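Entry 0007
Protein: DUF3105 domain-containing protein
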Amino acid sequence: MGSAKKTSSAERKARIAEMRRAEAARERRARALTITLSAVIVAALGIGGYFLVSQADDDDESAKAGDAAAVAKFTRTKDGEKVWDAKKLGRTHVEGKVTYPVTPPVGGNHNQVWMNCNGDVYKNEIPNEHAVHSLEHGSVWVTYNDAAKPADLKKLEAKVKKTPYSLMSPVKKQKEPLLLTAWGHQRAVTGADDPKVNTFFSTFVQGKQTPEPGAACTNGKGQ
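Output (structure tokens):
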């Protein structure tokens, strides 16, 4: 009788031990499966994120390339003003530098922050990407290089300072000494007393070419 009890107890212990081994094996398999699934999910998210970023970069570069092609084409009026199709100029907000085929640029993709253009006169060069946004708001941008005469600059500064939706800054790489630029329009002038200066201002300060009439020219970027 005692022998039978001992045998039964040993068998029970053996079954319990086997059940524990089986449970431990199931737990190991479950942990392994969880780790594998986690690794797969992380890898998928990483790949998906890469493609999303890559696609965004590609879209941004495509926008810049298409914009450059549109800006490169212009017509010229009989009295020398260069005119671009304003509707074909890109208006996408982009980060970083934009390569414009025209110096100074006449429109195109630009930074989301405009340059202050409430009669602001800048003594140093300003970022094209911000100035283009000011053009989008209907401003006239007066630019000059080292060949411009000081007397002309003084008169033009005075005109800009009393004209909301205008700004002025040096652009050393431009070919002409004095240039007037609006969205899709650009003109070289012989000096501050050139009658085309007043005509350009009266036509293009918040003119019909403005993509966003009435948009702010303050609370943007200053120098």
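Curator remark: Confidence is low (pLDDT under 50) at residues 47-66. Residues 72 and 101 are 6 Å apart (CA to CA).
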